[in-house]
Design brief:
single chain, alpha+beta, CBS-domain, four-stranded mixed sheet, two-stranded antiparallel ribbon
Length: 149
């Protein structure tokens, strides 16, 4: 099975200059905890991700940040991002999630354009063995020194 078969296509995205308030509302309205951050609406190149945890830990918990005027680029994760392609096998997706200890992973094409997103719940729906599901979640959640993205 390939990533394209389980991914959510055309995920909601945001840009670095979007307000965190608007992004938080998008997350709440769409019941998601991660939005891919793109460079612009034309190219849709993935440049980072923003999570509900990023907003809480990097903005709300930081006394020096102005929560009312904060924008995505103030809290987003950039640099090494854990991604897969639509042709990646589900085993590759699981491996990347485990390596990066991420619960959601962007799906990109060969031009770094966001085409989908996969959450652990998408994988769980495809695995029949409850013990295997538990093992996947345990591996993803296991503490390590690996930087998260």
């Amino acid at each position: 099975m390939r990533a394209r078969e389980i991914m959510t296509e055309e995920p909601i995205t945001c840009m670095p200059t979007d307000s965190l308030r608007s992004v938080a509302k998008l997350m709440a309205d769409n019941m998601c905890g991660l939005l891919p951050v793109i460079d612009n609406l034309e190219s849709m190149h993935l440049i980072g991700v923003i999570t509900d945890r990023d907003i809480v830990c990097r903005i709300l918990a930081n006394d020096s940040m102005d929560c009312n005027n904060a924008v995505v680029q103030d809290a987003m994760t950039t640099g090494r991002l854990w991604t897969v392609t639509a042709d990646s096998s589900v085993d590759e997706v699981i491996e990347k999630m485990e390596d990066g200890q991420v619960r959601r992973i962007p799906v990109i094409n060969e031009d770094n354009v966001i085409v989908g997103i996969i959450a652990t719940a998408d994988i769980a729906l495809e695995i029949d063995d409850e013990a295997e599901i538990a093992e996947v979640f345990e591996e993803i959640s296991e503490p390590s020194d690996t930087p998260r993205a």
